[in-house]
Design brief:
mainly alpha; elongated; 6 helices; Four Helix Bundle (Hemerythrin (Met), subunit A); single chain; 121 residues
């Protein structure tokens, strides 16, 4: 299991009254944000912008931890440590694992998503 459902449930419980629509929106926002962050990581690596890469992996580390994507969060933590040491080569070496972990999270969270409701009009 890629997503720790206990962590995700704890987060949702802490949010108070939530419904299925809120959960769907949260997942859509996370997935959208991961795409943006992934682009930032690659852009930062291409331009050798350590700050951009570091900021991006830090952000993904935190948001992944909140939704229970522990493996992805831990990997982002490793990548962040490499950034803090100005070692973008080490970050590059982790990209294959990063892509695999990210795809697993997307696939599992995609199973939670339903099609947005259509207005019957």
């Amino acid at each position: 299991m890629v997503i720790n459902h206990s962590i995700l449930s704890t987060f949702l419980d802490a949010m108070g009254d939530y419904d299925e629509e809120f959960t769907q929106e949260l997942i859509r926002d996370y997935l959208s944000e991961t795409s943006r962050i992934r682009s930032d990581i690659y852009a930062g690596l291409a331009s050798e912008d350590v700050e951009l890469v570091c900021r991006a992996v830090h952000s993904l580390k935190a948001s992944s931890a909140v939704i229970g994507a522990q493996s992805l969060s831990e990997l982002c933590g490793e990548m962040e440590k490499s950034c803090l040491l100005d070692n973008l080569e080490e970050v590059q070496l982790k990209l294959s694992r990063f892509e695999g972990a990210l795809n697993q999270v997307r696939q599992e969270l995609g199973g939670f998503q339903k099609e947005p409701r259509q207005d019957p009009s």
